[in-house]
Design a protein that fits this description.
The protein contains ten helices and no strands. The N terminus is likely disordered. It has one domain. It has 258 residues and is mainly alpha-helical. The relative contact order is 0.12. The longest helix has 35 residues.
Length: 258
């Protein structure tokens, strides 16, 4: 479909192929200007697939019931996980400056990662659902300590999840191995991991505080914006740990030589 055939790589005139990559905000806006449509389409698919989780959690909180909580967490997480991995695959390809048609690569990545994403989606969805349910039922009079523990638990969950789902999009590895890697990467590169989580906190806190006015912004930036900021923060860690770009370059060279 022509609607989905957007290139990841559109070098501008006069840009040397050996020029060093931009960093920070300059890199963010470079990728945004080049791949915005790809980010938006992948983000909308992820946002739409998260609706069962969102609606299930709304019902669980409104009725103070644990059964909808379990269903929303496990089933909602499994439904959303393949599209989340598809979004991360889109972003990681952009971070690697990898050329290609978005819809073609997205479908290929979705088929490759769908099965592997179900278990992380179920476990991550359940843990996130429990955190959200607890937050909405948190009694301020209980003191600062329970609230602090809740915040730390959410921080750890998001910190591990950012590495875990990125690995699902990048590697073929058993769940236990990816979880172990996520723990080591999170602890070993805590400043970058914390920056990735911080972007998630800031984005969703702004959305919640300004709701329903922020609903329009959510339709434009939902999922892809916090995911892009998070992946940009931890991509150097992923590249260093898994030697991504060297391996991908070697694979491309081998395909060209064959």
């Amino acid at each position: 479909m022509a609607l989905f055939n957007f290139h990841f790589d559109r070098p501008g005139p006069g840009v040397s192929p050996d020029a060093p990559r931009k960093k920070g905000p300059a890199r963010f806006f470079e990728m945004l200007g080049r791949d915005f449509v790809s980010f938006y389409l992948a983000g909308m698919l992820a946002l739409a697939s998260a609706m069962p989780f969102v609606l299930g959690m709304w019902f669980a909180v409104a009725t103070h019931s644990l059964v909808p909580l379990l269903l929303a967490g496990v089933l909602g997480g499994m439904i959303a996980a393949p599209q989340l991995c598809g979004l991360l695959d889109t972003i990681l390809r952009s971070l690697r400056d990898e050329p290609g048609f978005w819809w073609t690569t997205y479908r290929r990545a979705w088929k490759r990662n769908a099965k592997a994403s179900l278990l992380p989606g179920a476990i991550g969805g359940l843990l996130l659902a429990m955190q959200i349910f607890t937050m909405f039922h948190y009694d301020i009079s209980a003191g600062v300590v329970p609230g602090a523990l809740l915040a730390v638990g959410l921080f750890l969950l998001l910190g591990l999840a950012e590495f875990l789902f990125a690995q699902v999009a990048l590697l073929e590895m058993p769940f236990a191995g990816m979880l172990k890697n996520s723990l080591f990467l999170f602890l070993g590169y805590l400043p970058r991991a914390a920056l990735g989580v911080l972007w998630q906190f800031v984005y969703w806190i702004v959305i919640l505080l300004l709701w329903p006015i922020s609903g329009f912004a959510l339709l434009i930036t939902g999922f892809w914006l916090p995911a892009l900021l998070t992946m940009q923060a931890i991509y150097p860690v992923l590249d260093k740990a898994f030697d991504l770009e060297r391996q991908i370059k070697a694979k491309r060279d081998a395909e060209l030589d064959s």
